[in-house]
Amino acid sequence: MPSSAAAAELVERCRRAGLALATAESLTGGLVAATIVDVPGASDVLRGGVVAYAPAVKHELLGVDAALLARVGTVHEEVARQMADGARRRLGADLAVATTGVAGPGAAEGHPAGTAWVAAAADGWATAVPLQLHGNREAVRRGCTGAALRLALDGVSRLSPPRGTVKTPDEER
């Protein structure tokens, strides 16, 4: 699904479910939020976004654990989760997505270009997905954006199951 279609579906599904959305972005540099904002009606659901490019901003603004950043760097599953959860809490959203990684052209922090993590978080849960993207810097950023939007759609499904479905107690956890 192209990013624009995923963004349109995300805005519509969040609107129907009454969910507020936020973003925390590093390697995508605001592209996730911009793709959402391209959809008419995005203001009904998007609370805001944080471009946290520097590790200090990840820590100071989003609350990513400083010891974690010192130990593993910024390209890590738990960093992505904490970025998403920090954006959710800081911006007062029901669901937030985050991106972190290496856009390239060269390696960074010992990771090759195209290595990335996307994460989604809501109250009580967070998930992260690893990516290994190929292409130039723009292709990596766009690929990560698409993955973040798809993960956000999964998060909306988790928060707002289709009508007629009931969550079991195990699914509630």
From TrEMBL:
Transmembrane segments: none annotated. It comes from the Bacteria. Residues 6-152 form the CinA C-terminal domain. Its EC number is 3.5.1.42. One of its GO terms (molecular function) is nicotinamide-nucleotide amidase activity. It holds the Pfam family CinA. Keywords: Hydrolase. Signal peptide: none annotated. This is Nicotinamide-nucleotide amidase.
